[in-house]
Amino acid sequence: MKLIVGLGNPGIEYQFTPHNLGFLAIDRLAGDLDVDVRNRQCRALTARARIGSEEVLLAKPETFMNLSGLAVGELVVKHEIRPEQDLIVIYDELDLPLGTLRIRQRGSSAGHNGMKSIIGALGTQEFVRIRLGIAPEQKILKPFRKAQLKVVDQVLDTTAEAVGVILQEGVAAAMNRYNRKAEPEE
């Protein structure tokens, strides 16, 4: 089984904020797979599904962003997940422009408190992550502006595609396909 975790903060007031892009990505995947992320386990809302030949567990930690490692650590233990092979974490990234995504196989938290919590709980940086750009949006806990929603919608679609490529073709293929500079619009 693969564990796909989106990071965010629980609560309606945070729902459509840049800091909740991870949750929104999980919601997009769940919608595409026709499942509801509502089963409570290990301090997270979860749903089981299948992407291609892979059984997946979608998860949205309910611990608030800065304590995401509590839920992810419990899910990893309960479901015998090997982080270096079976974990994908999706989260917002201030260092990337809104609408871009970057896939990495490993790395530090780069100052992201949710990732810092997960790395601390797992004791490893060896897991796949999909970083979703939110810059120059500096107000990470304020709702997206209406003008940004089309870009957000597009990046959520791309993220769902990227997850499928990671699971079916591997991380290297997904990195080659999606870690490109955005094409300038004409």
Taken as a percent bin, the fraction of beta residues is: 25-35%
- The chain-level structural class is alpha/beta
Mean pLDDT, to the nearest integer, reads 94
Low-pLDDT ranges: none
How many strand segments? 7
Distance between the termini: 43 Å
- Alpha plus pi helix count: 6
Q: Any idea what the radius of gyration is?
A: 15 Å
Q: Estimate percent helicity.
A: 25-40%
Order of helices and strands: EHEEEHHEEHEHH
Shape: globular
Q: Strands of the largest sheet, in order across it? A: 2-3-4-1-5-7-6
* Biggest pleated-sheet summary: 7 strands, mixed
Please tell me about this protein's structure:
A hairpin with a 2-residue loop joins strand 2 (39-41) and strand 3. The model has no long low-confidence stretch (mean pLDDT 94). It contains six helices and seven strands; from the N terminus they run E-H-E-E-E-H-H-E-E-H-E-H-H. A seven-stranded mixed β-sheet has the order 2-3-4-1-5-7-6, sandwiched between helices. It has helices at residues 21-33, 68-78, 83-86, 113-122, 149-169, 171-178, and strands at residues 2-6, 39-41, 44-51, 54-61, 87-97, 101-104, 128-135. It has 186 residues and is of the alpha/beta class.
